[in-house]
Amino acid sequence: MNVKFKRVLSIGVVAVTSGLLLGACSGKQQGGTANRNVKHGIALITDSNGVDDHSFNQAAWSGFKAYGQEHGLKQGKGGYQYFQSSSAADYAPNFDQAASAGYQTIFGVGYQLTDSVAAAAKKNPKKNFVIIDSVISNQKNVASATFESNQASYLGGLAAAYSTKTNKVGFIGGAKSSVLDLFEAGFRQGVAAGAKALHKKISVQVQYIGNFTSTDKAKAIAQSMYADKADILYQAAGNAGNGVFSEAKDYNQARPASKKVWVIGVDTDQASLGDYKSKDGKTDNFTLTSVLKGLDVAVHSLANDAYNGKFPGGKHIVYSLKQNGVSITKGNLTTKTWAAVQAARKQIIDGKITVATSPKK
């Protein structure tokens, strides 16, 4: 994504915005080579999902690679690197390892790393730290970055309402939290708005996996929802969300293209995950649209701030629909649906629609 962000800066604790998690698997830094100037090195401390999860983690890592390419830096000391974590017990040691290896700006991408980022920042006051999808206050060497994914999820819900044929849709989340509340709340509100505009009654099934790694459980939930006639599922589940795509592919391959079900992607454009061949031999795609977070550009931008001696320590940067910090893709949306989405986007930006940050109980 080549969108250039404007930034909204504020100090203090505010509502946490969207996000899934980062991940990999071993508690060790990954290969690479040395760079001449170590003061511009950036490091990523992962969760257990991996940097190639087709979602949140992959977006962050692509931002790291873009930073390296821009400044002629290679993967390795003094350049850019990620440190793998197999569990939460690896977070603190990995932050220590990254700091001792000389990386100047260290990122914890995902709200589950909040405490570890805060502790590492106190331990290393001369280094820069970034927490993504959470807010750490009163630490001058920590920048906090969040995304208003409830806004983009609203657009995804609106698109689902305009696209469903069964008038049943579903939301599958990873681990229940205030961060995931943003995705669920926005999606529910968008579906409701679309149903009202179209004079339809649309039900929304909601279920959480309990984590961001269990693809088998995600697949089972999707199977149940599709069996109950839901024809569009929005998954905000990190690596586990691949299980939803797997089930949709299995389901669609056994049916004619005219009877397919859909998945709404998250964080990155997940269109390619929807490619399949239907029972009647047609090559098709079932990714309706993807709700995007500009996480790749955010980490790239913050790394550049540090590179230029302007690291926004102590600040909270909010990436919203207004700055294209969140958005959705055109994907397989009809012209009518896309027009409704664009109209709603403008209304949100203009303050005519306020999107909830937590689901109504």
Give the topology, please.
Blueprint: E1 8-10, E2 42-45, H1 56-71, E3 80-83, H2 91-100, E4 105-109, H3 114-123, E5 128-132, E6 142-147, H4 149-163, E7 168-173, H5 178-198, E8 203-208, H6 215-227, E9 232-236, H7 242-253, E10 262-267, E11 275-277, E12 283-285, E13 287-293, H8 295-307, E14 316-319, E15 326-328, H9 335-349
Parallel strand pairs: 2-3, 2-4, 4-5, 5-6, 6-14, 7-8, 7-9, 9-10, 10-13
Antiparallel strand pairs: 1-14, 11-12, 13-15
Radius of gyration: 20 Å
What is the name of the CATH superfamily of the largest domain?
A: Response regulator
Strand order of the largest sheet: 1-14-6-5-4-2-3
Range of helix content? 25-40%
Please summarize the sheet with the most strands: 7 strands, mixed
In DSSP terms (H or I, runs of 4 or more residues), the helix count works out at: 9
Distance between the termini: 36 Å
Average residue-wise pLDDT: 89
The chain-level structural class is: alpha/beta
Number of strands: 15
Please state roughly what percent of the residues sit in beta strands, choosing from under 5%, 5-15%, 15-25%, 25-35%, 35-45% or over 45%: 15-25%
Tell me the overall shape.
globular
CATH architecture of the largest domain: 3-Layer(aba) Sandwich
Compute the number of structural domains. 2
